[in-house]
Specification:
This protein has two domains: 319 residues, no CATH class; 112 residues, Immunoglobulin-like. Helices cover 42% and strands 20% of the residues. The chain is built from 15 helices and 16 strands. A hairpin with a 5-residue loop joins β9 and β10. α4 packs antiparallel against α5 and α5 packs across α7. The chain is elongated, with a radius of gyration of 32 Å. The structure holds iron/sulfur cluster (2 copies). One iron/sulfur cluster (SF4) binds next to α11 and α12.
């Protein structure tokens, strides 16, 4: 059973606007592509993460770390300032549950005073059918954060969806339905980790939804007591988590402000001042002193958030438009070529982080006697893509200038150079050591 129908008021209207904007953002983002690049997508098969024009490769996970740390600190900062803004106004759980409840109440014919005495079976069935359709829409868009929704649609239309994609679509649809239709705010009360540590982020100056005890108590029927609360119970009836805010700040309160609108409507009818329940700090409620906005914890979270933002911007500015990783091929560390030279096999992982396709030349910077053997060179790598190729380096065994002599004199370091053919200034060099088998002529152990 849901809470009673919310009372229309300032916060309720604000909430409709916020819900609409957030749902639109959630559903639109997977479709947005700029110059062929998605706005936000965790492309697992392509092993890259698109976020607002930045394409992050697995080797650049520090970007993700900075983003996650920045979001967490922003959450801490705004929570210390204004309480559970996230829970009440931005969390998809709250926003979508609100919409599900609204649809359910509408189909089942709730009046302002509550549900009808009896809800017809067809209305109950219709409620769940609509919820499932909305869950399918949400599930599709959830998968759309991982796979292009355009590709999903065209594959679905041609019946070419893979079993894995189909399973993900069904699972995300089922998850959305179970969570929003059945679990609802129980998730906030018992499962959400954020609710558990919010008390650490609050202090007495933090804005919270609070009941003015000094003004409201003693509560009771109008005319029988001096307090302004007439104990109508409307604030409890509309609360989606079913708590009584008059008992003080509670873990379950998600700051949705529905009790504020409900109580303000009662106060208006009684021609009493509004905001018996309001959005204010505990010090304001207790009237002990003026509210302080700049407190040590707010300044500390703000400073840490600023540091993360600066670090992120610096990392983006310092980012090279190409990258090369070199590793020994583990299945063929070293061997002998037909002409007797020692060979090492390498795997080159080339990343083109630019938004255009480019040709890259692979070269070797090494002492005399080493030779690079490649297949295709230069190689073409598509925009914001990675390319992997396997190459060999051959080392002469004998002679005054042999590579082996370089090894024995401690110069077995190879430099792989990757440079753009049209602009050789765009280049990276990666060093790696050439390996010889222990006991081979002129060499020692594997280096
Ligand atoms: S107490 Fe008020 S603000 Fe808190 S969850 Fe209930 S209705 Fe929302
Ligand atoms: S809505 Fe206001 S008047 Fe009614 S019980 Fe709640 S606090 Fe009291």
């Amino acid at each position: 059973m849901w809470s009673a129908r919310p009372v229309e008021g300032f916060f309720r209207r604000l909430r409709w606007a916020a819900d609409g904007i957030l749902i639109a953002i959630l559903l639109v983002i997977p479709w947005v592509e700029i110059n062929g690049e998605p706005l936000i997508r965790l492309d697992v098969p392509g092993r890259k993460f698109h976020v607002f024009g930045l394409v992050i490769f697995p080797q650049e996970l520090y970007f993700l770390w900075l983003i996650v740390a920045g979001l967490a600190l922003a959450l801490f900062f705004f929570t210390a300032l204004a309480g559970r803004l996230w829970c009440g106004w931005a969390c998809p759980q709250t926003v979508l549950t609100d919409v599900y409840a609204m649809v359910g109440r509408w189909i089942q014919g709730w009046s302002r005073s509550g549900p009808p005495a009896r809800v017809a079976a067809w209305r109950k069935i219709a409620t769940h059918v609509v919820w499932m359709c909305f869950a399918a829409l949400l599930g599709f868009h959830l998968v759309g954060y991982f796979v292009s929704p355009y590709a999903l649609l065209s594959k679905a239309a041609s019946g070419a969806l893979t079993p894995t994609t189909t399973r993900f679509l069904l699972a995300s649809t089922a998850l959305a339905y179970l969570d929003l239709a059945l679990v609802r705010q129980t998730f906030c009360k018992y499962l959400c980790p954020y609710a558990r540590f919010q008390s650490v982020l609050f202090d007495r100056d933090t804005l919270v939804v609070g009941y003015d005890t000094k003004r409201g108590e003693p509560r009771g029927k109008r005319g029988s007591v001096v307090g302004d609360c007439v104990d109508c119970g409307l604030c409890v009836a509309v609360c989606p988590t079913g708590i009584d805010i008059r008992n003080g700040l509670q873990l379950e309160c998600i700051a949705c402000t529905q009790c504020i609108d409900a109580c303000n409507a009662v106060m208006e009818r009684l021609e009493r001042p509004r905001n018996l329940i309001g959005y204010r700090s505990l010090v304001a409620l207790e009237r002990v002193r003026a509210v302080r906005i700049l407190r040590p914890r707010v300044l500390m979270y703000g400073a840490l958030l600023s540091a993360i933002v600066v670090a992120f911007v610096a990392a983006v500015v310092a980012r090279e438009p190409l990258d090369l990783q070199v590793a020994h091929n583990p299945s063929l560390l070293f061997g002998s070529a037909a002409d007797g030279r020692t060979s090492n096999a390498f795997i080159l992982h080339i990343q083109n982080r630019d938004r255009e396709d480019h040709d890259y030349r692979i070269r070797l910077e090494a002492p005399r006697g080493f030779e690079l053997v490649t297949g295709v060179n230069p190689v073409r790598v598509q925009a914001t893509s990675a390319f992997e190729t396997r190459v060999f380096v051959l080392a002469e065994q004998d002679g005054e200038d042999s590579a082996h002599r370089a090894v024995t004199s401690g110069e077995s370091k190879l430099g792989f150079v990757l440079e753009r053919t049209d602009d050789p200034r765009q280049r990276v060099v990666r060093d790696i050591t050439f390996l010889f088998a222990a006991g081979s002529s002129g060499g020692g152990s594997v280096h």
